[in-house]
Structure formats: structure tokens, C-alpha cells
Amino acid sequence: MGSIDNPLHPLCIAIGAEATFVARSIDVNIKHLMMVLERAAAHRGTSFVEVYQDCNVFNHGAFDYAIDKEVKDDQTLYLEHGKPLIFGKDRDKGIRLNGLDPEVVTPGKGGVSEDDLLFHDEKAPEPSLAYLLSRMTHPQFPEAMGVFRCVDRPMYDVELNAQLEMAEAKLGRGDLEALFHSGDTWVVES
Fold first, then answer.
1. Are 18 and 45 in contact (CB under 8 A)?
2. Which of 21, 36, 121, 155 could covalently link to 43 via disulfide, CB atoms 3.0 to 4.6 Å apart?
3. Could you tell me which of 32, 22, 41 has the C-alpha nearest to residue 130?
4. How far apart are CA 166 and CA 27, in angstroms?
């Protein structure tokens, strides 16, 4: 009957850990998947990509809402940097904030304009928007597909190597043998 635990959301963990490239795609949308994977491969640093892929053995059909041609446009939201969060078969629905919570609205109705919608910013240094988008799940919200976050940050290996070069320039090349025989030493006898 399956697990009764709340599901783990890999994107939330990656974004919460301040990953610099986080994206999602689905295996049957080959063009989109290729674009996401190419961007992930080109990103300087570690990239995290979640790919929705049907499994014929376990949980078959779990992503039908995101691939069924009759409903997928109303159940998924394709992220575009700098553009409003609009979705729907007729592109007639959007996402805006109601306080700190997202809500689905219809631009042009009830005084809601396109300017009231959230605009996607994959380059925002603060990961809050990316995290909010990663928490929107079917059926309450459309599930976001695309690049949630793509920011430049110093890379660990580059910074470490720069630190080593600076230490060597300041102190000279280390001598392990001299280090072993410096200061207090002792002999362990058995």
C-alpha cells in the first residue's frame, strides 16, 4: 500500500543546502530535458537535476498528470527566467503571492493583472523563490519544470587551490620531513 510518510522532496534539500544549479524535467519532454541537462553540464560547480521518469514496476503512472496531453498544460508550469509564472492550456492561469503563500489566479479577472504575478528569477542570490517553487506540488499547484536556480558562487576546489598557492608564496614550499622533526617529539615503545 506504500509508505504513509510525507515524501522526501529532493529539490527542497538541494535548494536548502544552497546548491547553485537546481532544475527539474521529465523524461518524455526530450527537448526540455536536453536543454536542462546541457545547462547543468555547462554550469561551473555542482548541478542537481531531478528527472521525472515513469517506472513500469514501481509506482507506474505516477507522473501521468505531467505527461497526459489532455491535462499536462494545466498541471505543470515551465519556468522561464525573467517571465511571469503563467500556465494552463490557454495560458490563462498564473501564480502570485498571497502573503507568503502562493496561489493560483486568473490574470484579467478580479482585478488581477500580469504584473501581480510572481516573476521567475533563477539568478536570485537568495534561494527563497526557488524553494517556494519546489514546494508547489500536484494537485494543489502546477509542478514547476525547468531551472529553479542558477547562480555563480566561488567553487571549493578553486578557492582551496588559491589558498594553498597563497600559503606557499608566503611560507615557501612545505617540507614534511622537517615538520616531523620540529618541536616536541616522543617515542612510543611497546
1. no
2. 21
3. 22
4. 46
- Cα angle, residue 103 at apex, residues 98 and 109 outer, rounded to 5°: 95
Q: What angle do CA 170, 175, 177 make, to 5 degrees?
A: 155
Alpha helices in 47-139 (DSSP H): 64-67, 72-75, 128-135
Q: How far apart are CA 148 and CA 50, in angstroms?
A: 11
pLDDT digits (tens, 9 = 90+) for 35-76: 999 999 999 988 999 999 988 888 888 888 888 899 999 999
Q: What backbone phi and psi angles, to 5 degrees, belong to 3?
A: -80, 140
Please say whether the beta carbons of 17 and 127 come within 8 A. no
Could you give the percent of the chain with pLDDT greater than 70?
99
- The type of residue at 41 is A
Q: Distance between CA atoms of 53 and 67, rounded to whole angstroms? A: 10
In the three-class reduction of DSSP (H, G, I as helix; E, B as strand; rest coil), residue 148 is classed as strand
pTM above 0.70, yes or no: yes
Cell 501581480 identifies what position?
Answer: 116
Spatial distance between the Cα atoms of 34 and 96, rounded to a whole number of angstroms: 29
Question: CA-to-CA distance for 51 and 10, rounded, in angstroms?
Answer: 11
Residue 185 has pLDDT above 80, yes or no: no
Residue 1 has pLDDT above 90, yes or no: no
